[in-house]
Amino acid sequence: MLRRLALTAVVTLTAVSAIAPAASASGQVPSALPTSGPLSAAQPAPGPLPVPLPALPSFLKGGGSGGSEKPAARTRLTVTVERSGVAGADGTFELTCGPTGGTHPERQAACDRLAEVGATRAGRDLFRAAPEGTMCTMIYGGDAYARIVGTWEGRSVDTTVTRGDGCEIARWNNLVPVLPDLR
Questions:
Q1: What is the helix, strand, coil percentage profile of the chain, to 5?
Q2: What beta strand segments (E) does the chain contain?
Q3: Where is this region: Disordered (predicted)?
Q4: How many whole angstroms separate alpha carbon 41 and alpha carbon 22?
Q5: Do 103 and 94 form a contact (C-beta atoms < 8 A)?
Q6: Which residues of the chain fall short of a pLDDT of 50?
Q7: How far is Cα 100 from Cα 3, in angstroms, rounded to an integer?
Q8: How far, in Å, CA of 80 to CA of 65, rounded?
Q9: b/e per residue, 126-144, with b = 16+ CB within 10 A?
Q10: What is the dihedral sign for C-alpha 173, 79, 117, 123?
């Protein structure tokens, strides 16, 4: 806090000295600082150089209305589903969130689910397979297979999900509607 106050004081003094230069020997304040040529004793020295400011966060850089550029999606996934047994559910679909888009059949619901899970503790393990040695029930949920590749909330994703045991069925169900509901 003290360092910030000291920096504020330096910036304030710099701005004041640049706006109101000292009076010359004749008592007159020069109307402008010299723009070229060497400095001499008769010319007042220009004020200190401006202090560089840190870069603005991206949300402050003209991201409001009137900007022609769309922000890059923080979530961009390619979802491939095979052998689901649900009409229209198999195939390869693109999903982008923030803004919502792509060819995914339930893109808004999928983005909402990813945002909901991402804000929880479970979000850290959303795309992670069960750790080696985890005890999973030996329930077979069918031949369905999915692969999800891309970025989620800026993090790299490359995972496969099946329905080969209780852990995988739970993972699949946790990813509905990113993956089709097979319950």
A1: 25, 20, 55
A2: 75-82, 91-97, 101-102, 145-152, 155-162
A3: 24-75
A4: 13
A5: yes
A6: 1-26, 29-37, 39-41, 56-68
A7: 43
A8: 35
A9: bbeeeeeeeeeeeeebeeb
A10: positive
Domain 75-129+136-174, CATH class in plain words: alpha beta
Distance CA 79, CA 54 (A): 39
Q: Where are the domains of the chain?
A: 75-129+136-174
Q: What does the alpha-carbon distance between residue 121 and residue 17 come to, in Å, rounded to a whole number?
A: 53
At residue 180, the pLDDT reads: 96
CB 163 within 8 Å of CB 172: yes
Q: Which residues contact 79 (CB under 8 A, 6 or more apart)?
A: 92, 93, 94, 95, 104, 146, 147, 148, 178, 179
